[in-house]
Every structure is written in structure tokens, then in C-alpha cells.
Automatic annotation (TrEMBL):
Claim: Kinase is one of the keywords in the record: yes
Assigned protein family: Belongs to the cytidylate kinase family. Type 1 subfamily.
Name this polypeptide is given: Cytidylate kinase
Enzyme class at the top of the EC tree: transferase
Subcellular location field: Cytoplasm
Keyword annotations from UniProtKB, A to Z: ATP-binding, Cytoplasm, Kinase, Nucleotide-binding, Transferase
Main localization category: cytoplasm
Catalyzed reactions per annotation: dCMP + ATP = dCDP + ADP; CMP + ATP = CDP + ADP
Gene encoding the protein: cmk
Molecular function per GO: kinase activity
Residue intervals of the Cytidylate kinase domain: 6-224
Organism: Psychroflexus salinarum
The protein's Enzyme Commission number: 2.7.4.25
Residues involved in ATP binding: 10-18
Length: 227
């Protein structure tokens, strides 16, 4: 079996991480959720009060970037990797709605991207990896052997995310989630640095009408063709 890089990009809440995790497990590959890394930096800024009224204090965050250390640690219960921010497991905190509200503003900052992209490249040096995000096929691994671009209608994505958050006990409305999904699409797609785009050689998967199993089958078959 050949070791390859599988890049999964796409819009917010398209189930990229769910399918990426499953694929990595099936192929015995490493899995890296790059959104979690941007979320961890956002949490760090929030804890330092560098984020207020939707605005990031960019210069404070950039000045202190060297004091942010991000690692992944295997969680045997979940069978996946948790994000570790300066030695603390923040997997739960980074999924909160408040982090989702600010993360796209933080992800726009050039220095933040530079730092995280460097770590991502190192993680994928030996291949045998499934990485999901927004710029994996376009910037982090332009040479990836398999590139997927996932999308679905905003309503369907918001409904899925709303159900997830409700299950976790978040006090939130569907409208708030829909607004956030659309806002992140807008910011992620229109930023100057590494915007969310479908690379020419990426295969588009619209999963609006697909079950998780159907989608997994399609993606697994695409991967097997390359391995
Ligand atoms: O994947 P997830 O929805 O957790 O990502 C959170 C946010 O992080 C995205 O909305 C985007 O602003 C940012 N992101 C990014 N580049 C990546 C991964 C995530 O800009 N490779």
C-alpha cells in the first residue's frame, strides 16, 4: 500500500472531520483536524481578552504567538486526537459556539496562518495522512495525491451543526447557527490569504443528499484508487 496525502477541504459543517477520521482509521493513516488548531489559537486569544465585540487585537495576538504551543494527543475513548494547548486538553472548549463566532477573524491573520501551516506541513512530511481544513489542497499540500472539496446547502449544514450543539447542551437557536455558518463561509472564502477555494484538481462532493455511509463509501473508493 502506498502512503499518500489526502486533503479534505470545504465549507463549514460539511462533516469533513467525521469522514476524515473514519477514513484515517480505515487506512491506518494519521488524521489532523486543522480547524481545531485555528480554534485553539482563538481560545487562547479569548482567554487573554484579546477578542471583544467580534474584533481581534491583532497586534497583541501576533506578538504573543510564540507562547502558543499546539499539540495533538491520542484519546483512546474517542479513538481520535485531542487538541492540546500549552499542555492543556482543550478539545471540548474549542467546539463552543463562542469560539466558532471568532475563529474566522483569527484565521485571517497572516502570522497565525504562517505558524499553523508550518506545523501542518511537518505533520504531513511522512505522508500517510488525512488532513481536513480550508486550504489543505491549495496551500498546505498542493501536491496531495487526493484532494476533496466538500459542500452542502447552508440550511442542511446548519441543521446538522445545530443538532450537534443541542446534544452537547448548548443554549442556541437554529437561526444563530445558520448565521454563523454563512458568516464563516463568507469570511473564509473572501479573505486575502489562503481563501477557501476548490482547487482545480479537487473532486467536489456535495453531501446534501448523502448519508454518512454513502459518502464514506465514495471517498474510500476514491482513496483506494490512489493507494
Ligand atoms: O473546520 P472548522 O469549522 O473547525 O474550522 C474553524 C475555522 O478555522 C474555519 O471557519 C476557518 O475560519 C478556519 N480554518 C482555516 N483554515 C483551515 C482550517 C480552518 O482558515 N485549514
Amino acid at each position: 500500500m502506498k502512503s499518500i496525502v489526502i486533503a479534505i477541504d470545504g465549507h463549514s459543517s460539511t462533516g469533513k472531520s467525521t469522514v476524515a477520521k473514519k477514513l484515517a482509521k480505515e487506512l491506518e493513516y494519521k488524521y489532523v483536524d486543522t480547524g481545531a488548531m485555528y480554534r485553539a489559537v482563538t481560545l487562547f486569544a479569548m482567554r487573554n481578552n484579546w477578542l471583544q465585540n467580534g474584533k481581534v487585537d491583532e497586534s497583541k495576538l501576533v506578538k504573543n504567538l510564540s507562547s502558543i504551543e499546539i499539540n495533538f494527543e491520542y484519546n483512546p475513548e474517542a479513538g481520535t486526537n485531542d487538541v492540546i494547548l500549552n499542555g492543556e486538553n482543550v478539545e471540548k472548549e474549542i467546539r463552543a459556539m463562542e469560539v466558532s463566532e471568532h475563529v474566522s477573524s483569527v484565521a485571517k491573520i497572516d502570522e497565525v496562518r504562517k505558524k499553523l501551516v508550518e506545523i501542518q506541513k511537518q505533520l504531513g512530511e511522512e505522508k500517510g495522512i488525512v488532513m481536513d481544513g480550508r486550504d489543505i489542497g491549495s496551500v498546505v499540500f498542493p501536491e496531495a495525491e487526493l484532494k476533496l472539496f466538500m459542500t452542502a446547502s447552508a440550511d442542511i449544514r446548519a441543521q446538522r451543526r445545530y443538532n450537534e450543539l443541542k446534544e452537547k447542551g448548548e443554549d442556541i437557536t437554529f437561526e444563530e447557527v445558520l448565521k454563523n455558518v454563512k458568516h464563516r463561509d463568507e469570511v473564509d472564502s473572501n479573505r486575502k490569504n489562503s481563501p477557501l477555494i476548490q482547487s482545480e484538481d479537487a473532486i467536489k462532493i456535495d453531501n446534501s443528499e448523502l448519508s454518512q455511509e454513502e459518502q464514506f463509501e465514495i471517498i474510500l473508493n476514491l482513496a483506494k484508487e490512489k493507494i
